[in-house]
Design brief:
Elements lengths: L4 E3 L13 H14 L9 E3 L2 E4 L4 E4 L8 E2 L5 E6 L5 E7 L7 H7 L5 E13 L2 E12 L2 E12 L2 E9 L4 H12 L2 E2 L3
Length: about 190
């Protein structure tokens, strides 16, 4: 049986209400990810891998199934969306400073409703420290699974995020395989 850490409504880990811009920004970030359109992102492909020189990383194409298509998402370096509303995206953020990875990963959940965290742990991602998180939350009135990996490249944080309304184990496994193939590339 999976043990969930409960984060009630918009209250933080210590019971204080989370108010203001960070919670709104996080909710808007996930809402935009949820509603991403269907236009292609600019990606360099070398040796069968996606090269994202802006972020200094390389990744294999995500193996989430043929129903996922490239999508345009404001602020994302790369994004994909499926017809059932699942979204996968890679973001780079150089404005969150040197916050611990766990805190940065938790920022992705601020402002969401009925958040339950199933997994929150440190991992190695492409030779660097990373933070893996698996949560359930209510987004636009629907329960979704939000699986994310947050890692640091130089002064910037990278967030790989899967939002899955079906909470399918196969997609979670494919997401884990995707981030596990993260490598450093020269810009």
């Amino acid at each position: 049986m999976v043990s969930f850490e409960r984060v009630g409504g918009t209250r933080g880990r210590h019971g204080r209400a989370l108010r203001g811009v960070p919670g709104v920004v996080a909710a808007v970030f996930l809402l935009v990810l949820w509603q991403a359109g269907a236009c292609a992102s600019d990606l360099a492909r070398r040796d069968g891998r996606l090269q994202l020189p802006e972020a200094g990383v390389g990744l294999a194409d995500p193996a989430l199934g043929s129903d996922f298509a490239p999508a345009a998402l404001d602020g994302a370096l790369a994004a994909w969306r499926s017809p059932d509303g699942a979204s996968l995206a890679l973001f780079s953020d150089c404005a969150r400073g040197d916050a611990p990875l766990r805190w940065a990963a938790n920022q992705l959940l601020l402002g969401l409703v009925d958040v339950e965290i199933a997994t929150s742990r440190e991992v190695e991602a492409g030779g660097e420290a990373g933070w893996l998180q698996d949560a359930r939350a209510t987004l636009e009135g629907r329960r979704v699974r939000i699986r994310s990996l947050t890692t640091r490249r130089g002064d910037c944080l990278l967030d790989l995020v899967l939002v899955d309304p079906g909470a399918t184990p196969a997609r979670a496994d494919a997401f884990d395989g995707w981030w596990a193939g993260l490598t450093r590339v020269e810009p």
